[in-house]
Design goal:
Helix content is 59%, strand content 6%. By secondary structure, it is mostly helical. The chain folds into 2 domains: 2-328, no CATH class; 347-470, no CATH class. Helix 20 links the parallel strand 1 and strand 2 (396-397). Helix 8 (133-147) runs parallel beside helix 10 and helix 9 (152-167) crosses helix 14. The longest helix is centred in the N-terminal third of the chain and has 25 residues, at 55-79.
Length: 474
C-alpha cells in the first residue's frame, strides 16, 4: 500500500532540484562527488536513461526502498518473537511515518540511508538473538554499500560496534564473521573514501556549510524528533527505546537505545539536521511493536485507539509529505512551512523556458562568446536536462559537483546569469549586467528561484582566474 501511494503520486508537480542534479551527476560517472557518494547519482541517471522524463520510473526505486524498509521493521519485530499483531504494528507505524513518505517520494540520499540503516539494525538484532555469524558478514556488506549512497550508515555502524564493546554482547565481535564483515565494509566503501581523500575531503566542507538544523536550530533538534514519525506514534518508538531496559531477556538489545542516544548527542553537538536521526526509527518501531501490542491487549478500546492514531498519522503525513495540494495552494500553506522541499519541485519547466527566452534575445554573434552560468546545481541541472529541447547549451556552475566537470572557454567573455538576485549579488566576478527576463513559476509560489532576474553580464576576468572564487560547497 505504501509503495502504491508513493508511485501514484510520483508524477505530480515536477523534478526536485536534487533530482535534476543527481541525473546530471550520474552522467559524469566518478567514484565520488564533493557532496555525496556515487550510488544515488548513478541510479538516477540510469532510471532517467531507461525512461527519459518519467518521474514514475525515476522515483520507483525510492518507493521500493521504502516498502523494503517497512518490511524490515516487521521482520525486526518477528526476530524478537512478535507474531502477526506485532509485525503489523511495526510495519504500519513505519509506513505512515512522515519521514518515510517525505524521503521516499523523491530521489534522495536519505532513502537508501533509511534502508541500509534499518537493514543493519535487523542484522544486528538477528546476530544478538540467534548468534548468527553470517549476519555479521552481511552487515558489513550493507554498511559498505550503504556508505556509497550516504556516509551516515558508516557512523551508525561504528557507534553500534563501540556500544557493543562497552555494554555487550561482545562474543559475536570476537568471531571471524565479524572480521570478515569489517573487511567487506572497508573494501566496498574504499572507492568513495579514497576519492574524498584525493580531493581534499570536500564532503567535510559541505557538512560544515550545511550545519545547523533546518528545524529550529539546536533548540528544535529534540522537539522535532516528536514529529519525525508522528506525534500520535511517539509512544511506540519510546517503548522501543525503553524495552531493552525493562523486559526480561532483552538485556542484549541495550545497544540499540544506547546507539540512538549516542547518535542524537553527536548530531546535536555537531549542529546536524534533526532529520539525521530518521534512519533509526524503523528499528525502534520494530522493538516498540511488542510492548505496544501487549498494551493493546490489556483493554478492548486500545486496539481501535492505536488504529485511529495510525490512520490520523497516515492522513497528516500524506498531506505534508506528498504532492496532494494543487501547486497554486502551496504558497502560505502548512505544507511549505513544514516541508519546504515541496516548493523545490515546482516551476522548473517555466524556469528553463525563461532562460531560453533570455538566451534568444542575445544576438547570435554574441551568443558564441556567452556562457550560461547558474548559481546552484538545481538551476544548472534543469538547464542541462530540460534545456536541450529548447536548444540551450549546457550550463556552467561552481556549485558542488558542477565545479568539477567543466569551466567556460576563455573566449566566453559574457555570461547569462541565473540564480543571482541583482547585479550587486553578481559582483565582483560579473559587471555591466542588464536584466533580460524575470523568473515566474506561474503559481505564485515564493520558492528559491521565483522573481530572480536572468541577467546578461560581462565577465570581469579570465574564467580560470575567477573559478576558485565561484566554487562553493553547500
Amino acid at each position: 500500500m505504501q509503495a502504491a501511494v508513493l508511485l501514484a503520486t510520483s508524477g505530480r508537480y515536477g523534478y526536485h532540484r536534487d533530482e535534476l542534479y543527481f541525473i546530471v551527476a550520474g552522467g559524469h560517472a566518478a567514484f565520488g562527488y564533493p557532496d555525496q557518494p556515487p550510488l544515488v547519482p548513478l541510479l538516477g541517471w540510469a532510471m532517467n536513461a531507461l525512461a527519459p522524463g518519467s518521474l514514475l520510473v525515476l522515483r520507483a526505486p525510492s518507493a521500493l526502498a521504502a516498502a523494503v524498509t517497512t518490511t524490515l521493521a516487521a521482520l525486526i519485530a518477528r526476530e524478537l518473537g512478535g507474531q502477526a499483531r506485532e509485525q503489523v504494528i511495526a510495519a504500519a507505524c513505519t509506513a505512515v511515518s512522515g519521514f518515510a513518505l517525505a524521503v521516499a517520494h523523491l530521489v534522495s540520499t536519505t532513502t537508501p540511508d533509511l534502508l541500509s540503516t534499518t537493514l543493519l539494525g535487523w542484522l544486528a538484532v538477528r546476530t544478538t538473538v540467534r548468534g548468527s555469524g553470517p549476519s555479521l558478514l552481511a552487515a558489513g556488506v550493507v554498511v559498505g554499500v550503504g556508505v556509497e549512497a550516504k556516509p551516515q550508515v558508516g557512523l551508525v555502524a561504528a557507534v553500534m560496534v563501540a556500544t557493543l564493546i562497552v555494554v555487550g554482547p561482545r562474543a559475536p565481535l570476537r568471531s571471524w564473521w565479524a572480521a570478515a564483515g569489517v573487511i567487506a565494509a572497508v573494501v566496498l566503501a574504499a572507492p568513495y573514501v579514497v576519492w574524498q581523500q584525493q580531493h581534499g575531503w570536500p564532503q567535510l566542507t559541505v557538512a560544515r556549510h550545511i550545519a545547523g538544523s533546518q528545524e529550529g536550530g539546536r533548540a528544535g533538534f529534540f522537539p522535532f524528533q516528536l514529529v519525525m514519525v508522528s506525534p500520535f506514534l511517539v509512544p511506540v518508538w519510546i517503548a522501543g527505546l525503553l524495552a531493552p531496559f525493562r523486559r526480561a531477556g532483552w538485556r542484549q538489545l541495550r545497544f540499540v537505545p544506547i546507539t540512538y542516544a549516542v547518535m542524537a548527542v553527536l548530531y546535536f553537538a555537531g549542529n546536524g539536521h534533526a532529520y539525521y536521526l530518521a534512519s533509526l526509527y524503523p528499528l525502534l518501531l520494530g522493538l516498540g511493536a511488542l510492548p505496544t501490542a501487549e498494551w493493546t491487549l490489556r483493554a478492548r478500546y486500545r486496539t481501535p485507539l492505536l488504529a485511529i492514531g495510525i490512520a490520523i498519522s497516515a492522513a497528516v503525513s500524506a498531506v505534508i509529505a506528498l504532492p496532494l495540494l494543487s501547486e497554486r495552494d502551496l504558497q502560505g500553506s502548512i505544507v511549505i512551512a513544514l516541508n519546504s522541499a515541496q516548493g523545490d519541485t515546482v516551476g522548473w519547466p517555466r524556469f528553463v523556458h525563461t532562460v531560453s527566452t533570455a538566451w534568444q534575445q542575445i544576438p547570435a554573434s554574441e551568443r558564441r562568446h556567452t556562457a550560461i552560468f547558474a548559481g546552484n546545481y538545481g538551476e544548472a541541472g534543469a538547464i542541462d536536462l530540460l534545456g536541450s529541447a529548447l536548444k540551450l547549451p549546457p550550463a556552467y556552475s561552481g556549485h558542488n559537483g558542477f565545479s568539477e566537470w567543466r569551466i567556460p572557454p576563455v573566449n566566453d567573455t559574457r555570461a547569462l546569469l541565473v540564480g543571482y538576485s541583482s547585479p550587486a549579488d553578481a559582483a565582483p566576478s560579473f559587471d555591466q549586467c542588464r536584466t533580460l527576463a524575470v523568473v515566474n513559476n506561474g503559481v505564485g509560489l515564493n520558492n528559491q528561484e521565483q522573481g530572480l532576474p536572468v541577467m546578461l553580464c560581462r565577465v570581469t576576468g579570465p574564467w580560470a582566474t575567477l573559478w576558485p572564487r565561484l566554487i562553493h560547497y553547500d
